[in-house]
Design brief:
Order of helices and strands: EHEHEHEHEHEHE
Low-confidence stretches: none
CATH topology: Rossmann fold
GO molecular function: oxidoreductase activity
Protein name: NADP-dependent 3-hydroxy acid dehydrogenase YdfG
Distance between the termini: 37 Å
Strand order of the largest sheet: 3-2-1-4-5-6-7
Family: Belongs to the short-chain dehydrogenases/reductases (SDR) family.
Helix content: 25-40%
Number of domains: 1
InterPro entries: NAD(P)-bd_dom_sf, Sc_DH/Rdtase_CS, SDR_fam
Shape: globular
CATH class: Alpha Beta
Mean pLDDT: 93
GO cellular component, one term: membrane
């Protein structure tokens, strides 16, 4: 099996890549920072020394880089079984106080990257009438909150993209699942005061994704919503 995970140098993306490699998948990952990406590749390879691990430095806000990454993936793997659109930026702020251009920046990374990469990789999925696309949304995709700003807008948009994609890919037997975690213990929360034991471990998100993938061919989990046991922070 071959899997592609974006934004996989740390946090949820890295946990997903480790889990899929451990379960026997070849893995293609990308992230912006080459150093963290190299460290992640080494860690993922340890989970499965026999797996092929492709790691590329990519700015997911740049369409040309996203398409170049897709090309390298297609040159490495003849088919794609699992695509995890995880790359994203979390920047809170009130709409009237945000810096100009923030919405465009967040849309490019949080929404357009998933759109462009999915379109580019579908030719490696549709002919096989099999495969699973996971779009990492957020609890912010369902419920707006003060200071959510442009981030909340992009996560609502990604949920819409995922729902539309689900309907379009039914005839091709490709599953689409929206995964929407609440507060998870990742670098996105650096600088925020929140106890670690109130947050979900990223490995839980990875386990849920593997469970959804492992279901029978005639079964698809369309939406997964996860929150800390004691609620949002």
């Amino acid at each position: 099996m071959n899997a592609v995970i974006t934004g996989a140098s740390k946090g949820i993306g890295k946990a997903i890549a480790e889990k899929l490699a451990q379960e026997g998948c070849n893995v293609a990952i990308c992230a912006r920072h080459a150093g963290a990406l190299a460290d992640a590749k080494a860690t993922i390879q340890q989970k499965n020394p026999n797996a092929t691990i492709l790691a590329e430095s990519v700015d997911m806000g740049d369409k040309s880089q996203v398409l170049a990454f897709a090309g390298k993936v297609m040159a490495t793997f003849s088919r794609i079984d699992i695509l995890v659109n995880n790359a994203g930026i979390f920047i809170p702020g009130a709409l009237q106080q945000e810096e100009d251009g923030l919405l465009e920046k967040l849309m490019a990374v949080n929404v357009y990257s998933a759109y462009h990469l999915t379109r580019a990789l579908l030719p490696a999925m549709i002919p096989h009438r099999n495969g699973h696309i996971f779009n990492l949304c957020s609890t912010a995709s369902y419920k707006a909150y003060p200071n959510g700003g442009s981030y909340g807008i992009t996560k609502h948009a990604l949920l819409g993209f995922s729902k539309n994609l689900r309907e379009e890919l039914i005839p091709h037997h490709i599953k689409v699942t929206t995964v929407s975690p609440g507060p998870t213990l990742t670098a996105s929360w650096d600088g925020f005061e929140a106890p670690a034991d109130r947050m979900m471990p990223p490995e839980d998100i990875a386990s849920v994704i593997w469970s959804a993938w492992s279901l029978a061919k005639q079964t698809v989990v369309e939406e997964i919503l996860l929150r800390p046991m004691l609620g949002d922070i």
